[in-house]
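Reply to thread "Modeling small-molecule complexes from scratch"

Following up on the discussion above, here's a worked example others can learn from. I took a protein sequence and the SMILES for flavin-adenine dinucleotide and predicted the complex. Inputs first:
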Amino acid sequence: MTTTHTTPHIVIVGAGIIGLSHAVAALDAGYRVTVLEQDARAVGASIRNFGHLGFGAHGGPLAGLADEARILWPSIAERAGIDIHPTGTLVLARDEAERAVLTEARSQERFAHAVPVDARGVAEMLGRPEVDPEFRGLLLPGDLTVNPRGAVAAIAAWVDAHERGALRFSTTVHAVSQGVVSTSRGEITADHVIIAAGHLLGRLFPDIAEEYGIGECALQMLRVREPEAEQVRPAVLTGTSMLRYSAFSGPAVDALRTHLERTRPDLLEMEANLMLTRHPDGTILIGDTHAAHQSAPPFLNETWSATVLTELADVLGSGPLEVLERWQGVYAQSANHDIVSVQPAPGITAITVTTGIGMTLGPALGARTLAALNLSLPATHS
Ligand SMILES: Cc1cc2nc3c(=O)[nH]c(=O)nc-3n(C[C@H](O)[C@H](O)[C@H](O)COP(=O)(O)OP(=O)(O)OC[C@H]3O[C@@H](n4cnc5c(N)ncnc54)[C@H](O)[C@@H]3O)c2cc1C
């Protein structure tokens, strides 16, 4: 089947997971798609994350998006040839305040399918011979894990190989007006333009960044060798994670925050979300810390990295972890919005996820943006 030139052309700026998710949704809807990426390959937030597709821990308005994304991710992974692992997520509680959060969570509808885990089960899921008998866990069984580096590259390749898709790397977009995208390689015409520039949205649309208070959030991450790598085990969230994911809310979460303010102010100061994902190559992605900036400086705080290493070695019950890589990731952040999706002018959609969950939600955001577009497709494809 060849496609007529009357097929509307959607140009997408940015080949991170948000741009690529929109590209897949646009191709599925029947449009022609060109993705423009300034770098020679995507090296932004989408390859720097945990690859944690953590659908289960999102509550409120994000829960519906998470549920949609849970349906879409396996289909994208299958078509792009991505290994997607049904690891689930173990939410680990190691003291009374954290156990109270799990008890509170279990009474909520969002956790209806979560599975309580006793100390023995926790040890098994962590790959430890034993843990403190007071440890408890909650398994979120629907969560998935991917290798973010491979996943983003594979989706990009799938888009580029599609008969209606094209990916142009090393092509910087300088300006977008209705119907015309000005790039470092000349102008491209479009029926609709989707800006998925992550934390760089303000470079193209400073007014939107100002209006929505979009700044940068810098996170520190490490990749370490798995102490016992015989199987891919669940992702792990800990007490600090309970303060960050929207499905955890209520008096027990407030009490945990107060408890941590007293016992571990250092973790709150670095806005830690101590968590990990485990991968079949025998490595573990661990992190993370958060710092808000207008423009994130490149420097890693070694005290923070050392704390992350010590804390997660403690979770794994291992000796010192062997560090293979350290890096900083940056995502867009806004104090008042989780997602910014606006139309700065007719024919242009600008979308960025302003909290650290875009890897999980990307496919659902792509599907929703495309569902709201009203471009007429030709009656027939010849
Ligand atoms: C350390 C870290 C850990 C995280 N962990 C998780 C996790 O486990 N699970 C989860 O769901 N989320 C996680 N997140 C959040 C998630 O990674 C982000 O929300 C998501 O990757 C954002 O995707 P994006 O496509 O908007 O941004 P990016 O991946 O940054 O992509 C934007 C792209 O746009 C390109 N671009 C920008 N401007 C232009 C221009 N003018 N012309 C051409 N190209 C341009 C950039 O080069 C870039 O490639 C994490 C984030 C970080 C930083």
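What I'd highlight from this example: The chain has 13 helices and 21 strands. The chain has a mean pLDDT of 95. Questions welcome below.
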